[in-house]
Amino acid sequence: MAESFRSARILARPVTEADAPEIAGIYEGNRELLVLLDRESDPLVLTRRFTLRENLPPKVPSTGLHNLILCDVRSEDPIGLLSLCVGYPMKNVAYIGELFLHPDHQGAGLGREICRRLEALLRLGPARYIRVGVGLKNWNALRFWIRLGYAQITGMSGDRHFTPKGHAFLELQKNL
Ligand SMILES: CC(C)(COP(=O)(O)OP(=O)(O)OC[C@H]1O[C@@H](n2cnc3c(N)ncnc32)[C@H](O)[C@@H]1OP(=O)(O)O)[C@@H](O)C(=O)NCCC(=O)NCCS
């Protein structure tokens, strides 16, 4: 997959360490949601992991990991982030590890736009399926992914006991 790509309104380019303040701002804007999604919800820890590429899954060549900052195509101002791993967990699967838009840019069709562009690019390569993991309390995102056609359930996991702070996830898949 190309290092950088663009859709009508979004430029996606590889993140650099210099982007850390903007990436932190995107996580920070989603702070309330982060607590619902995972055990690790500190925007600074997540920023470090994203900018330094510490989110590479085991046994995947580092060339498969694409940590991208999403920018307004005209102003180049950062509006979101996307982490994609091609070849995980199988060679013919691409996995969206993270997709976050800053709240100022949510609900305007940008998420759908970047996903459609990404899927079109992936169809040119070896991936035949695209997957995403969604926190069960993230009902807006569940609706978003299901409406985009991520309707096959390929994984389920979660805390065994119910507590207000418990976490559970669905892994959703779409054919490319
Ligand atoms: C989830 C996210 C990427 C979606 O991108 P977006 O640009 O906001 O979504 P879009 O405007 O493209 O919406 C596409 C569809 O998603 C659904 N959707 C998006 N936001 C929604 C909301 N706040 N409530 C309910 N449904 C919503 C709608 O079904 C919408 O289709 P419709 O307009 O035909 O009803 C974005 O809102 C976001 O970054 N959220 C916070 C982080 C997050 O949850 N990431 C996903 C982790 S798995």
Summary, kept brief:
By secondary structure, this protein is an alpha+beta fold.
Describe this structure in words.
The chain has an eight-stranded mixed sheet with strand order 1-2-3-4-5-6-8-7, sandwiched between helices. With 176 residues, the protein is α+β, with helices and mostly antiparallel strands. 27% of the residues lie in helices and 31% in strands. The chain has a domain at 5-125: Aminopeptidase, CATH 3.40.630. The chain binds coenzyme A. Coenzyme A binds at residues 30, 33, 99-101, 106-112, 132, 134, 138, 140-141, 143-144, 147.
Low-confidence stretches: none
Gyration radius, rounded = 15 Å
**Quick one: biggest sheet?**
8 strands, mixed
- DSSP E strands, number: 8
CATH architecture of the domain at 5-125: 3-Layer(aba) Sandwich
Which strand order does the major sheet show? 1-2-3-4-5-6-8-7
Order of helices and strands: EEHHHEEEHEHEE
Could you tell me which ligands this complex binds, including any ions or cofactors? coenzyme A
